[in-house]
Amino acid sequence: NAGVTQTPKFQVLKTGQSMTLQCAQDMNHEYMSWYRQDPGMGLRLIHYSVGAGITDQGEVPNGYNVSRSTTEDFPLRLLSAAPSQTSVYFCASSRQSVRGELFFGEGSRLTVL
Amino acid sequence: GENVEQHPSTLSVQEGDSAVIKCTYSDSASNYFPWYKQELGKGSQLIIDIRSNVGEKKDQRIAVTLNKTAKHFSLHITETQPEDSAVYFCAASNPNTGNQFYFGTGTSLTVIP
Fold first, then answer.
1. How far is A51 from chain B (nearest CA, A)?
2. Which of B17, B74, B85, B86 has the fewest CB atoms within 10 Å, i.e. the most exposed one?
3. What count of CB pairs under 8 Å joins A to B?
4. Which chain B residues contact residue A40 at CB under 8 A?
5. Can you list the positions of beta strands (E) in B26-101?
6. How far apart are the first and last CA of chain B?
7. How many CB atoms lie within 10 A of CB B19?
8. DSSP state letter for B99
9. Nearest-CB residue to A106 (from B42, B46, B49)
């Protein structure tokens, strides 16, 4: 059972570089989301999607882009990385949006120098 | 939007003792309250949830209570074991009005053998 798969697990970037965090789920979930986790701040929602072709902003969307071309994939793009984007990123999916269980990936630790 | 506060931020208990983590929320319309457990280096997993039409729910050693009037809910873990050591997050949502979970800032629980 793959569940939610995130890649890469670790990444170091220089300020201004771009990169994409990949997220894929094999549970046919319509709802997918990206969170960042910072010390003392819990999980904060970056972007989410309620289905293919539909995305929306969460609490902290600035500096990030997303797309949802298929049900399975929900990549998160950093166009010009900044040190403030150093964080641990989690992708999560749900069958019932915010009515039911979120299934999380194992996280991607990003450091921006 | 919703604001979820969680206390304490750290908690140490002796094995076999009980642990209680408390959360408050601001939006009286929130009606779904899950608790997630995050073990080191892993994504979070749902351990128990409660909906606003009930006041308490139990699952073996874990229970959650909800006081809608006071807008707070609590996680109770009895007979704690070392494997209960983890970071615990509470969350709140209102599926009728939005597609976001609002998470607390987390509680790092250490169970001392």
1. 12
2. B17
3. 65
4. 9, 105
5. 32-38, 44-51, 56-59, 62-67, 72-77, 86-92
6. 41
7. 18
8. S
9. B42
> Could you give the CA distance from residue B2 to residue B24 in angstroms, rounded to a whole number?
10
Supply the mean pLDDT for chain A.
94
Which residues between 25 and 64 in chain A have a beta carbon less than 8 angstroms from any beta carbon of chain B?
A: 31, 35, 40-45, 48, 50, 56, 58-59
Residue B72: CB atoms within 10 A of its CB come to 16
| pLDDT, tens only, B13-42 | 999 999 999 999 999 999 999 999 999 888
Q: Is the pLDDT of residue B98 over 80?
A: no
The arithmetic mean of pLDDT across residues B106-110, rounded, is 97
Cβ contacts (< 8 Å) between A44 and chain B: which residues? Answer: 103
